[in-house]
Design a protein that fits this description.
The relative contact order is 0.12. This protein folds into 3 domains: 168 residues, HUPs (Rossmann fold, 3-Layer(aba) Sandwich), CATH 3.40.50; 137 residues, Argininosuccinate synthetase, chain A, domain 2 (Alpha-Beta Complex), CATH 3.90.1260; 39 residues, Single alpha-helices involved in coiled-coils or other helix-helix interfaces (Up-down Bundle), CATH 1.20.5. The strands form 3 sheets. The protein has a 5-stranded parallel β-sheet with strand order 3-2-1-4-5, sandwiched between helices. The protein is elongated. It contains 13 helices and 14 strands. The chain is an alpha/beta fold. The mean pLDDT is 94. Keywords: Amino-acid biosynthesis, Arginine biosynthesis, ATP-binding, Cytoplasm, Ligase, Nucleotide-binding. One of its GO terms (biological process) is argininosuccinate metabolic process. It comes from Nocardiopsis sinuspersici. It catalyses: L-citrulline + L-aspartate + ATP = 2-(N(omega)-L-arginino)succinate + AMP + diphosphate + H(+).
Length: 400
């Protein structure tokens, strides 16, 4: 019986060429799997037809936008996930979703191998292969671009020699990955980290320097999940789409950074994630109102570790699962409304309200009606500062 390979298929040059390359090198049949994570672009039916025309015995396309929003984007919002305090995990979030569909397709089609189009320099190879090892460890993994030295020139020549239906005449200087949560741009002139980004790089966001009036809105969260904008109930997918549109129109969510890749190198990346940045900003502020101090302090460390695990491709790890349970529990009271003004590249919180609020006006006010017993402060300070005081006195004695 002929072996089958399930290929993570994007419809672009590398993965289209990989269909024929895998068939010639291994003799296996290729099942192409394309996942819609909200990246836009070509219709998936067109992508499916291209895969078949390039030699796939079957092509599977899946609209996973709702799944991506609910099961991947929402947990990232609840964890305020920003790798290195800046990057909202645009690509890292979609990879475990794709891996899950690849594993499901491999079981359904009786495949013994899975293939991807990642290079040997990036994080995605780890995300795909570590995820597959967790979900379907019996599968072998092929990485034609990484393991065969398939350069772009060789891929173009392969496509031309075999008459594959791929437009290879236009070469973008950038490598671009995008989905519902945001957009990532790298390579080209950006590899010189002294070069500033140009406006042509951006697609999800308008130039924040352009004149436009401010946009005020109210975002409603229920247990840390965005459930309405301006009083209109929305699914997580609809909330992300709405915030991408409105925050993007104000130039919010642009990030230009040098980040530490898992594979040991530093890489310059330009991101735009308007909805993600606006929603994380709103969520963080609602947490400030509704989450108890010690829980909030501890959660900040959990949030950072959660983001690192997802960035490193360990979505399906026991530690990430355990941290997710904590994050979900910590969000149970993060319910209420945040008013924001979107303008000039910034999302600024201007109001908060919640029935689960821990803010007590009587304790906080400095005016008449203050219920805080200030006479308790002196004794508290004496006790709180005692360990440092005792240690300081000890050190003075030892230096005499």
């Amino acid at each position: 019986m002929t072996e089958r390979v399930v290929l993570a298929y994007s419809g672009g040059l590398d993965t289209s060429v990989a269909i024929g390359w895998i068939a010639e090198e291994t003799g296996a049949e290729v099942v192409a799997v394309a996942i819609d994570c909200g990246q836009g672009g070509e219709d998936l039916d067109v992508v499916r037809r291209r895969a078949l025309d390039c030699g796939a015995v079957e092509a599977v396309v899946a609209d996973a936008r709702d799944e991506f929003a609910t099961e991947y984007c929402v947990p990232a919002l609840q964890a305020n996930a920003l790798y290195m305090d800046r990057y909202p995990l645009v690509s890292a979030l979609s990879r475990p979703l794709i891996v899950k569909h690849l594993a499901d397709a491999a079981r359904y089609h009786g495949a013994t191998m899975v293939a991807h189009g990642c290079t040997g320099k990036g994080n995605d190879q780890v995300r795909f292969e570590a995820g597959l090892a967790a979900l379907f460890p019996e599968l072998r993994v092929l990485a034609p671009v990484r393991d065969s030295g398939m350069t772009r020139d060789r891929a173009i020549a392969f496509a031309e020699d075999r008459g594959l239906p791929i437009d290879v005449s236009r070469k973008s200087p950038y490598s671009i990955d995008q989905n519902l949560f945001g957009r990532a741009v790298e390579t080209g002139f950006l590899e010189d980290i002294w070069n500033g980004p140009i406006e042509d790089l951006y697609d999800y966001t308008q130039d924040p320097a352009q004149e436009s009036g401010p946009d005020e809105l109210v975002i409603t969260f229920t247990a840390g999940v965005p459930t309405a904008v301006d009083g209109r109930e929305l699914t997580p997918l609809q909330a992300m789409e709405e915030m991408n549109r409105r925050a993007g129109a104000q130039g919010i969510g642009r990030v230009d950074m040098v980040e530490d890749r898992l594979v040991g190198i530093k890489s310059r990346e330009v991101y735009e994630a308007p909805g993600a940045i606006a929603l994380i900003t709103a969520h963080q502020e609602l947490e400030n109102v509704t989450v108890e101090r010690e829980l909030a302090r501890y959660k900040r460390g959990v949030d950072q570790r959660w983001g690192e695990l997802v960035y490193d491709g360990l979505w399906f790890s026991p530690l990430k699962d355990a941290l997710q349970t904590f994050v979900t529990e910590a969000n149970k009271n993060v319910t209420g409304d945040i008013r924001m003004v979107l303008h000039g590249g910034r999302a600024v919180v201007t109001g908060r309200r919640s029935e689960a609020s821990l803010y007590d006006y009587g304790l906080a006010t400095y005016d008449t009606g203050d219920t805080y017993d200030q006479s308790l402060a002196r004794g508290f300070i004496d006790v709180f500062g005692m360990p440092a005081k005792i240690a300081h006195l000890r050190d003075q004695r030892r230096t005499r």
